[in-house]
Amino acid sequence: QVQLVESGGGLVQAGGSLRLSCAASGRTFSIYTMGWFRQAPGKEREFVAAISWVGGYTFSADSAKDRFTISRDIAKNTAYLQMNSLKPEDTAVYYCGAVTRGGGYSRTTDYDSWGQGTQVTVSS
Q1: Contact at 8 Å (CB) between 90 and 12?
Q2: d(C-alpha 49, C-alpha 117), whole Å
Q3: pLDDT of res. 36
Q4: Among candidate residues 97, 101, 94, the one with its CA nearest the CA of residue 113
Q5: Which of 17, 24, 59, 98 has the fewest CB atoms within 10 Å distance of its CB?
Q6: pLDDT < 70 stretches in the chain
């Protein structure tokens, strides 16, 4: 099993930036993909971005393209989400997940492990 711990959330003004980190431990050799999702109050958890662990191929939701960048450092077993030009509608709890069975990357059901989440609040 893979354990995940997110960090880097906080309060930022609109137009600002944050970098989220997701540190993986445990059976990290089994990771196919790591992804970021977010969940705003009263809404479902939605896909933000994902990265294939070995190849480094990235996938982003339309809402994240041009503003958010996902990356990973295999040596540190850590994935990152660099978020720029933040908007109030980006306010949510951000979760990272790991896919260890292979397959998809954009649905919550594709993921086997989740972190506890980190709050991002963007003020106007």
Answers
A1: no
A2: 15
A3: 98
A4: 97
A5: 17
A6: none
